[in-house]
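Database export, one record per block. Field names are fixed; values are copied verbatim from the stored entry.
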Amino acid sequence: MRRLQSNMVSDGAFIFLIIVCFVCIVFTAGNPNLYIQNIIFLNLALLIAIVTYFTNVTTGLILNILFIFGYGTFTLYQTVVVGGVVGAQNYFWLIMTPLFTISTWLLTYGNRQLQLENEQLQKANKSLATVDAKTSLKNTFSFQSDATIFMALSVRYHIPLTLLVFSVKYWDEIRRIIGEEQLMEAVLDLSQMSQTSIRTNDSLYLLNKENPMWGMLLFTDRPGASIVIDRLRNSVEERNRDEYREKYRVELILKMGAIEYDAKEVPNPLEFITLAKKQLEFDV
């Protein structure tokens, strides 16, 4: 409903501004004797409208007050000194210039409301999204939900659960060597490679996208996770010989750590990640 109102304000203000421009152009062209004078006032009205667009309505109203004061002084000079007659010409720009300002402000207001709503929707989408758009992997938000369920299953049915996390060694140095596009390709390649190394009932997550770190929830004990670790290392080493070194000009070396779930030591999914990340420090 709020978005619809913003659209109506923006569209209505745009149409109103077009109508005001049309009326001013017709009025200016309708009196050749005052053509130069009307062009000057039209330019002033447009200038005030532009300033209002890039600032705020208060600035526009102040400029309109100054314009009305200046135009009133000009009209008084023509009437008293020159001996002119006050007619429709004298009132037209006193009305149309504020209308220019109001229509421009309404247009600006509507556009800013739409931009604000768009930013809020983007933030909400990022916070609620459970899958990374580029790698199609579940993210930390999804991990918290899944890990809570898996941890409960592990306790109830006495099934061993291990979190394996891994990242790329020397990622900051690699970032300086290859471009941003190849960085995302490397993340995608490693994600696809990791998916082929786990069973269908295990889950893979992209826990950190900026400084890539993956997580695997494995229904196995710590020795069983070591088998997956060896499998991942061998897969990366094979690809380093055949593909990665040529494609990225560097070797991609994994840094891995794993920790088995213990209900007494791991109260929540985020602590599970923290403890698993500490194991990375021992993989040198």
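Remark 1: The two ends are 56 Å apart (CA to CA).
Remark 2: Residues 202 and 218 are 5 Å apart (CA to CA).
End of record.
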